[in-house]
Amino acid sequence: MNFHQYYPVDVVNGEGTRCTLFVAGCEHQCRGCYNQSTWSLCSGQLFDQAMEDNVIADLNDTRIKRKGLSLSGGDPLHPANVAAVLKLVQRVKRECEGKNIWLWTGYTLAELSDEQREVVQLIDVLIDGKFEKDLADPSLPWRGSSNQTVHRLTES
Ligand code: SF4
């Protein structure tokens, strides 16, 4: 998997202070997408073991307390990203006690494959659905258009 941006301290992508990773690769081609540079799986740079370790260390850094990890893109549930994202979220759940995970995807919850659902089972908040330009509303919290849904999957 490749990624475009990693913010070790972020307060705009999800509730609370967070670590946020924007991965590369998206097949939805939404009209009006602000992140077209992330569509290619080959764009950005490699999310290697050192980067994965870095994210885990940041989440456990007690000097700046983070509420959790946010995963966006691109699409973290692009079939080519699922294995790497699953490995990362499994580590967060195992090694980062009390941290929640938010994930943005262009797929809807109803259309996810078994592999994608394996990731979602470990997610606390899922924002799903393509960005629909005609339904865009900047006043909506955590989503760009009204067809998208914020699924709070856990109490976290
Ligand atoms: S799902 Fe997101 S990144 Fe992908 S095309 Fe749509 S708006 Fe852009």
UniProtKB/TrEMBL annotation:
Recorded GO MF terms: oxidoreductase activity
Top-rank lineage group of the source organism: Bacteria
EC number: 1.97.1.-
Recorded catalytic activity of this chain's protein: glycyl-[protein] + reduced [flavodoxin] + S-adenosyl-L-methionine = glycin-2-yl radical-[protein] + semiquinone [flavodoxin] + 5'-deoxyadenosine + L-methionine + H(+)
Cross-referenced InterPro entries: Aldolase_TIM, NrdG, Organic_radical-activating, Radical_activat_CS, rSAM, rSAM_sf
Record key words, sorted: 4Fe-4S, Iron, Iron-sulfur, Metal-binding, Oxidoreductase, S-adenosyl-L-methionine
Pfam families: Fer4_12 (PF13353)
Cofactor: [4Fe-4S] cluster
PANTHER family listed in its UniProt record: ANAEROBIC RIBONUCLEOSIDE-TRIPHOSPHATE REDUCTASE-ACTIVATING PROTEIN, PYRUVATE FORMATE-LYASE-ACTIVATING ENZYME
Entry function: Activation of anaerobic ribonucleoside-triphosphate reductase under anaerobic conditions by generation of an organic free radical, using S-adenosylmethionine and reduced flavodoxin as cosubstrates to produce 5'-deoxy-adenosine.
Family stated for the protein in its record: Belongs to the organic radical-activating enzymes family.
Full protein name: Anaerobic ribonucleoside-triphosphate reductase-activating protein
Species for this entry: Enterovibrio qingdaonensis
